[in-house]
Amino acid sequence: MGEVEYDDAAAPPGWRGKGGLRGRGLEARQDELRSLEVSVTEARYFLPAMVTGLLATPEYIRASLADSPGDVSATVAKKIARQEVLREGSCSFTFLLTEQAVRWALLSPEGMVEQAARLVEVSRLERVRLGVIPLGTVLPRGPMNTFTVYDDRFATVEIFTGRLAFRDSRDVETYRELFAMYEEHALFGDQARERIRSWFEA
């Protein structure tokens, strides 16, 4: 996969409501994210509630789109194709997931076990750091929102009704500091893999 030049003008605007995102097409959004992910050198994902598509099985991805109108097969396919960015290109990825995000049951128990195995598999990739924050971990700030930080250029925050993008350096630095704080409390490597397995042993 070739590099593409980063262009701030192509980054998401300050606010996109859910209707506007769907109006452009879910597949178009996947193309936008793919271009973004190959144009930065470092991406940090804080996931307090659900697993992101880059880490998800096809079954989990489809379940996460259950409230989307129409046939989502093309979007599912593009989300799966996007996962190649974890193995190709030069971007490094750090994912922080709370225990709730890992265990939230979008699927049957069997499906969730497969999803857990997918997390363990991805955690072993060379350019991926995957950390988990178990319930009971004492944190100085509550995990309020899903957010992603791309280099030191901008950050996106997702809520039920849409997505916010922050480009002001002070805002981006705030999210970088938040991420670093959560990162200090996360388990990585073998500890993370063992904890994920333990959550699904039953």
Automatic annotation (TrEMBL):
Give the classification, highest ranks: Bacteria, Bacillati, Actinomycetota, Actinomycetes, Streptosporangiales
Chain ranges of the DUF5753 domain:
32-197
| Ranges for region Disordered | 1-23
Q: What is this protein called?
A: DUF5753 domain-containing protein
| Organism for this UniProt entry | Nocardiopsis alba
